[in-house]
Amino acid sequence: MSHDVPESTTGTQRPRFGKRSRRAALLGVLGASLLTVGVAAFLPPDSPDPVLVGGPQGGVSTLDRAIRTAEAKLAKHQQDPQTWAELGAAYVEVARAKADPAYFPKAEEALRKSLAQQPDGNGIALGGMGALANARHDFVGARDWGEKARAALPDNAEIHGVLNDAYTQLGDTAAATAALQRMLDLKPGVSSFTRAAYEFEIHGRVDDARHALDRALADAVDPGDVAFCRNLLGELAFDNGDLDTAQSHFEAGQRAVPLETSLQQGKAKVAAARGQTAKALAGYQDLVARQPNVGNLREYALLLSSSGAPESAARQYELFEEQRRLEVESGANVDLEASLVAADRGDAAQALRFAQAEWDRRQPVFVADAMAWALHLNGRNAEALTFADRAASTGWRSASFAYHRGMILAALGRPGEAVKALAEALRVNPNFSLSDARTARTTLANLGGAG
Predict the structure, then answer these.
(1) DSSP states of 95-164 as a string?
(2) In whole angstroms, what is the distance from residue 278 CA to residue 280 CA?
């Protein structure tokens, strides 16, 4: 087994962030220039897709084999801090792959056993604890574990990836960029290029983000990594209003890993945007049966609500609450997701309570947006605009951010600015939300703008 902290058993640390579940704050001038140089140095001309190896479930089977190997080794010899650390890291990844928070305590137990057996210089276990904290949305903890891991293994690329994820989520732009740059310097590949793409995207550099993802895809060999890159390319296309390209990437990803749920979610979302409601509902119904995580349950509930099935939507929200409790019991934090669902259901007070709790922990732009929307729902529009300004500060071409800003401006009696923001939301992605896009068009018409 490798002495590096595993990116994952398929070669890629896959962040579970809300944008989806994604991240960051404004880059400083120095950070932006360093990132531009670092990424550009590794972006070659377009390449054909790699030849796939392994079976249709390549990523998952690789993960299962790694766990079985580690468990068999530990059954014979318990005093093995490296293998305990690698087992813990594998459990973190399987929790992500299966959306099952029950693996978090198992991961923590294995990693703490490693640290107990080797308390000094155990960078593998320290990095694993950082990855676990990121998965649980404990980004302060992830930062602290990651810094300890970096002190032990300063030239380990995956540890810098853990730190990039943590600092991005905390809104510490300079530290996030420095960690990403170091990761690119040490190990340009799928994991570092996908993170670079995300940094480009949140700063409005969509073409650069796409180029970085194309470079990641060219480097991907494992089917799980191919599917991962295809999903990110599909999401980028969808978020910028290109349904055909999004569909193409989701389908290509499924050719690599047919049962990957993120790709199924993408295809269901495209179907809903195209008005293929029955197809979209069937896709989401199967999706939540296979992977009932909080994100999938919320999207299914929203689709049911917009399709005129409020009782079925209410059942999905009940399941969301059950899943949220499971995640909290496993040590995870899902206050941001809880705020979004409370807002969906018209519970303004709860939406603000959860958003404020999240803001008190971290201040990236998407939490600023959640604060802005929750404050708006509570009639506190002047305060809401301050947070909407902060959400817009990086230049992220987010239709949802622009929609929220437009509705806040309309409530403040600033129709010209509201029209501009709402039109921008529909220009970026006319399908960003079935219900909110309808509201945006209606509000534009009422304000005298083009709807």
Answers:
(1) HHHHT-TTHHHHHHHHHHHHHHH--SS-HHHHHHHHHHHHHTT-HHHHHHHHHHHHHH-TT-HHHHHHHH
(2) 5
pLDDT tens, residue by residue, 347-366: 999 999 999 999 999 999 99
Q: How far apart, in whole angstroms, are the C-alpha atoms of residue 31 and residue 357?
A: 29
pLDDT at 176: 93
Structure tokens at 400: 């949802």
Residue corresponding to tokens 């669902």: 341
Strand partners, 18: 21
Residue 231 CB burial class (10 angstroms; 0-12, 13-18, ≥19): buried
Q: What is the pTM of this model?
A: 0.83
Distance CA 291, CA 16 (A): 14
Question: Under CATH, which architecture does the 1-272 domain have?
Answer: Alpha Horseshoe (1.25)
pLDDT of residue 43: 36
H-helix or E-strand spanning residue 292: none
The token pair at 15 is 């962040």
Domain ranges for the chain: 1-272, 275-333
Residue 105 confidence class, pLDDT cut points 50, 70, 90: very high
Q: Is 21 helix (H, G, I), strand (E, B) or coil?
A: strand
In the block, residue with structure tokens 């509570």: 378
Averaged over 235-240, what is the pLDDT? Answer: 98
Is the pLDDT confidence value at 9 over 60?
A: no
Residue in the structure block whose two tokens are 């099952």: 100
* CB-CB neighbours of 55 under 10 Å: 13
Residue of 177, 197, 204 whose CA lies nearest to 33:
177
CB-based contacts of 255, cutoff 8 Å, min separation 6: none
